[in-house]
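2024-03-11 09:14:02 INFO worker-7 job=invfold-0412 stage=load source=structure_tokens
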């Protein structure tokens, strides 16, 4: 019989890579897994996934995960954390999931000060469904549904959800990072670790937005995509800690 897998099928699935070349999701997933192991929380972690290219990440993760309806991960994370308060609970959502269909969910979860961590992957488009305009698409950015570039009069302004959430009293740690170059990757890991520690010290809502390259949606090479984050995306979405009320 022909041997399809060098490893067992389940082991091969654990090590598969689901993303386009240069996508930032794989780096972010690696950081998440590293932080959870460094905090020795693997057996006490529940990830709640939104709908996007990253929704297959539970195949890679070695901890409990739930897949939520589109935009509804904050509601599910609220329930999980309230029922199991000793767990590390995080949502993993794209900008389409959190900043479009799920905007209401995340705002009210942060307003209530729900004690989970929201991770937002911002790649400035709906990557999974072809790269069309998202609330986070920056002005001038060309997409299949804004072929002349995003225009404020026609499409509105980019949604800076993280700035909005940082204003809410229920949020105690809010940061924006990028995974486009080694120094930023290290900062991203530190921010995710700080948010998780803040959650476990509780109470309070924590959030980390990750600027994540989408070379396929942006019609750029991986190298161009990572430069675009630096040269264009960070002008609308500056990096840094927006709120730290943890001390
Ligand atoms: S479409 Fe974009 S977000 Fe999705 S896997 Fe490809 S590069 Fe990543």
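2024-03-11 09:14:09 INFO worker-7 stage=emit residues=247
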């Amino acid at each position: 019989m022909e041997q399809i897998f060098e490893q067992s099928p389940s082991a091969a699935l654990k090590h598969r890579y689901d993303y386009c070349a240069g996508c930032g999701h794989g780096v972010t997933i690696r950081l998440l897994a590293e932080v959870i192991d460094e905090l020795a929380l693997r057996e006490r972690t529940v990830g709640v996934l939104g709908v996007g290219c990253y929704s297959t990440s539970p195949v890679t993760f070695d901890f409990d995960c739930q897949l939520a309806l589109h935009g509804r991960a904050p509601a599910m994370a609220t329930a999980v954390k309230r029922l199991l308060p000793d767990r590390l609970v995080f949502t993993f959502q794209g900008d389409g999931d959190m900043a479009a269909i799920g905007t209401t969910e995340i705002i009210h979860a942060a307003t209530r000060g729900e004690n989970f961590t929201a991770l937002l992957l911002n790649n400035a488009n709906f990557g999974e469904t072809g790269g069309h305009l998202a609330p986070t698409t920056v002005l001038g950015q060309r997409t299949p549904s804004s072929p002349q570039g995003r225009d404020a009069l026609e499409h509105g302004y980019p949604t800076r959800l993280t700035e909005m959430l940082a204003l809410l009293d229920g949020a105690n740690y809010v940061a924006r990072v990028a995974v486009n170059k080694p120094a930023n990757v290290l900062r991203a890991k530190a921010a995710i670790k700080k948010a998780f520690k803040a959650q476990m010290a509780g109470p309070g809502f924590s959030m980390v937005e990750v600027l994540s390259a989408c070379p396929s949606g942006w019609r750029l090479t991986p190298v161009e995509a990572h430069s675009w984050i630096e040269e264009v995306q960070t002008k609308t979405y500056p990096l840094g800690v927006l709120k730290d009320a943890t001390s």
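2024-03-11 09:14:09 INFO worker-7 stage=report msg="Residues 1-5 have pLDDT under 50 and may be disordered."
2024-03-11 09:14:10 INFO worker-7 job finished
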